[in-house]
Amino acid sequence: MIFGVPVQALMGQLLVGLINGSFYALLSLGLAVIFGLLRVINFAHGAQYMLGAFVALLLLTVGGVNYWFALILAPLFVGLFGAIVERTMLSRLYKLDHLYGLLFTFGLALAIEGTFRYFFGASGKPYAAPAQLTGAVNLGFMFLPIYRGWVVIASLIVCFAVWFMIEKTRLGAYLRAATENPVLVQSFGINVPLLLTLTYALGAGLAAFAGVLAAPVYQVSPLMGTNLIIIVFAVVVVGGMGSILGAIVTGYMLGVVEGLTKVFYPEASNIVIFVIMAIVLILRPAGLFGKDA
Amino acid sequence: MSAPLLEVAGLHAWYGESHVLHGVDLHVDEGEMICILGRNGMGKTTTLRTIMGILRKRQGAIRFAGRDMMSVPLHRTARAGLGFVPEERGIFATLSVEENLLLPPKVAEGGMSVEEIYALFPNLKERRNSQGTKLSGGEQQMLAMARILRTGARCLLLDEPTEGLAPVIINAIGEVLRKLKARGMTVVLVEQNFRFASKVADRFYLMDHGRMAAEFPVAELEAQMDMLHRELGV
């Protein structure tokens, strides 16, 4: 017993928190990357997450493509879809007020989700975890379902890889520089419009990756992204708009805080993230990791 | 006589509805260093930004190395061999000094190697792992120039490199410009400080209300002093 709470319940909720945090981190990372460079608040992020899960489901049921290939193919498909959306539509809005990008992606999300609801209905569809990841291991103090452990590890690996790409490579230097001063970077001979397209595709692909990871945990449904995305926006605000590391760390942190709240004061677990957001906005308007502009 | 490396004729440009360049004519030969003088707001910086293609609302003719540049998109201008060092220097805060230096892609052979650049600017080598904007103003100016020198650009558009810098740093920048000239670099310099410019430039343009009001070689600078004092208000 810790503070009058059974260890198993505590560890169980900590794990749930870490898993939710894994999705928050992956999704807020994509949002942060897109916002940093494109200055677009991507309201279609939840729909792109849902698309990832659905592509995995359709690959399995229609094409017989297994989970592991879906984990690679779905982000590629959704990334390509994102690239086409950016090139043909979103890129036309950069010259206008940022609000137009937000409105466009919001409308896009409604259109995608509506289309999927029309064809697949609103009810969730199960997606079985791959055979290699079923079952659980006994950690002594609790049973850890293997798939859930995998979600945490996979998201950590992908978050680290994206962070490394942005902070430590030449391509990442282009991205960081273009975030600060796109015109000057373009005058150096770097194709910034292409960089914008790739960045949006990367963000969409990350959302789709999270969607595939989520498919066996939650059910696959057209509205699976809408509930999640509101929390993810709160995560981005707490971490600091456009901060890569902030998005990742805050994602895991708030997932865990939410999980712990479920143990100690379950009534508050649905609002704790928003309470934290409000406090952070009062004390540090730029976010925990944001730089004051 | 061979054609100039850079030739601008009848260049007009607009910021939104505001007409700022009213028919700029200028030419620069290969290896020449020209300087555009003029009071604030006369269109010097705009001229550089329009030649570079940053300001796209423009009319007239820009030819560089025999190529029409008017239809070339901004990200291909550098590939043609033009390099731009902006007045605000444009050092990136989220990049280290070395990342800043290595950022612009090489556009041609013949640029300086990183070793040569570090030999020319020892401060940059010492501070290569610092955050770009942690450098002093003079060091940031050196870095802004150095990163273009690495790319192999043939012509440097240099906007007020001495602005806000101490005399000893200004001398160092003058030294760098003389070395570049010795290497055959073509430079279009925008300066308020014509004492500095007179030590490096071959030829001068005086800009007034969006066009070139006068042009003279450095040899005539003394003879033009009265006119310059009147026009520049110094």
From TrEMBL, chain B:
Signal peptide: none annotated. SMART domains: AAA (SM00382). The keyword Transmembrane does not apply. Keywords: Amino-acid transport, ATP-binding, Nucleotide-binding, Transport. Pfam families: ABC_tran. One of its GO terms (biological process) is L-amino acid transport. Residues 6-234 form the ABC transporter domain. Gene3D superfamilies: P-loop containing nucleotide triphosphate hydrolases. It comes from the Bacteria. InterPro entries: AAA+_ATPase (IPR003593), ABC_transporter-like_ATP-bd (IPR003439), ABC_transporter-like_CS (IPR017871), BCAA_Transport_ATP-bd_LivF (IPR052156), P-loop_NTPase (IPR027417). GO terms for molecular function: ATP binding; ATP hydrolysis activity; branched-chain amino acid transmembrane transporter activity. Belongs to the ABC transporter superfamily. This is ABC transporter ATP-binding protein.
